[in-house]
């Protein structure tokens, strides 16, 4: 019986040749950072394989970051993906490809791109409604602008970290309504936000908006994102200019970027719109639906606490991109934008502890005790999958991080 | 009579050897970007001069951006400045230095650093009070947090442009209280914000706050910054997550960065504090005062409209840096932070048209007509100077930009 090849990925594996997400890895034996493509339980050293095969993409793939590939544009993304698909599926390529496969448990994964600007949106109606009820109990849950434009703000690019990086509990000022003056100390309401992130490849010119229909020209792929949030710091600081230190201490992203092309079968229509949209946001006559059916799971210390459905998001990533640039703001390769917390209509679909515990009122039960917000030592993991072609699943990998005590 | 040297800078010139700001330039004859140091009406090609003199700083200065110098740290900044001072003042160096001087009107000036993250603060009590009165007339002008922490938010790094870059009037959604629904179109309330920017040189570690007393270790210098603002877009979008498209279309910065060392004589104490500060913000026992006495002038089409005094800012740049990192957020070389609009107590000291015209109610008179907000074709210029040693003035140069119509 012939030895099985690592390229014989078992049927049903969410990292089969229909997926092929990109990352950046190194190994103990070779600490150079280099582009890797995940296939089954292995990572293909894509630049080395391209060189061995005499591929014209050896230059784009033989890099320490995904940015050169991201900047190469939509046609290159398609052609590189076609080549990779052939390398991992065509038996004739196996002798050249197999030597460049590294078992997943032997690699160290790095932040796969250099982040330019980072924008975070607020696109789940269920999340925004829950937060509005808690933080502004005397007014309407949604602000008057919410269904007219995708609310967003800029976050801190320099503290985006790759999955697996420990998160130091932030300190800061907080002031409960009953406190006579603010107090300083480690956050006592450290939370998560389960989100999906998108990374821009093709830049745009200053002064030139990007049209809704040009989304696939500019955006390379998506990944899971945990927008760690210190609710007590955020509540005291955020009026009038928005979240700042309550968010800027860390944002964790997956090590793997799934190209949009792998998610064609996951496209779904967003929810019905309650108001007519400005033309630059109106996707009602688009053939390709703007939503993605991504099924997210949130776990704390290995125990599932929520299953947020990305398909319920009110604003699509294409609408977010069109909005972000409608004032003429330019895009750069490596720009990242987050969807905002993904929360569905059901209690078990909420993507933050703020919502799951109703701001600490209703503790959730874990096998190791109750939780309102995160404790030191807690590990939070987001995973997700999407429907792929022919009944397959496209795995989005995971984003994980452990809380360590304030220094 | 011997020919006068360009290095014989006239007495009283705000760009004498006591100043020596850094920039990046090219010329028609040589389009390589390179580090320049302004002296009088000339720009010294610093890398070329260093090479001609056999200086060990030829590597740091022979670059297309200031980032390598910024990243070299406080001791290097001091030593490079000492060397430059000797080159432009010691007659023995003239034969080697003079060939590397280019008249200012022959250079093109570029964005002098690669911006990492951009944070904008809100540190003028007069500005925040004026804005609060206009936007929240039914509440207190200052939010309860304002005197306890320097309010700030992240802006868009990728749309920071160098002085002289045209600014395209942004389009976006706006909704007057009387409008039944939002409308879309070019901003009709395009404004300026006269600010001072600071650029970080020395990075810091994730999870490690930067102490108030370490400001000079991390911050290289300062410059003028115009935070262009579309007030109508901002008013409709900014609740609850802060300014986004009302700001992100462009932020203009001076081409020259003045090193903090040139501003020792401009240090002044900030205003008396109305509340006790948390220890990480408390500068009351610091020997060196945290404020800077910078005298700013705002002009539209060459006509002065305001003279905002930076010495009146409530929060110092050192407090802003300490606050920005107290949650463990790390700094990168090239991080920029803006002071927020500089407005003094007098009407003629207000750093925005929003305040100067009281949100359009009181037009200001220019020789070419009345203004409430900016019209297409208007050119806005900020200039400033600071007291230097021995009665000199330290010129901060200018930041200028012209409004061009929406595309």
Automatic annotation (TrEMBL), chains A, B:
Positions of the Fumarylacetoacetase N-terminal domain: 18-112
Origin superkingdom: Bacteria
Cofactor: Ca(2+); Mg(2+)
Family annotation (Pfam families): FAA_hydrolase, FAA_hydrolase_N
InterPro entries reported in the protein's UniProt record: Fumarylacetoacetase, Fumarylacetoacetase-like_C, Fumarylacetoacetase_C_sf, Fumarylacetoacetase_N, Fumarylacetoacetase_N_sf
Species name: Streptomyces nojiriensis
Name used for this protein in its record: fumarylacetoacetase
Keywords assigned: Calcium, Hydrolase, Magnesium, Metal-binding, Phenylalanine catabolism, Tyrosine catabolism
SUPFAM superfamilies the UniProt entry points to: FAH, Fumarylacetoacetate hydrolase, FAH, N-terminal domain
Domain Fumarylacetoacetase-like C-terminal: 119-403
EC number(s) from the headed UniProt entry: 3.7.1.2
Listed pathway(s): Amino-acid degradation; L-phenylalanine degradation; acetoacetate and fumarate from L-phenylalanine: step 6/6
Cross-referenced PANTHER family: FUMARYLACETOACETASE (PTHR43069)
Enzyme class: hydrolase
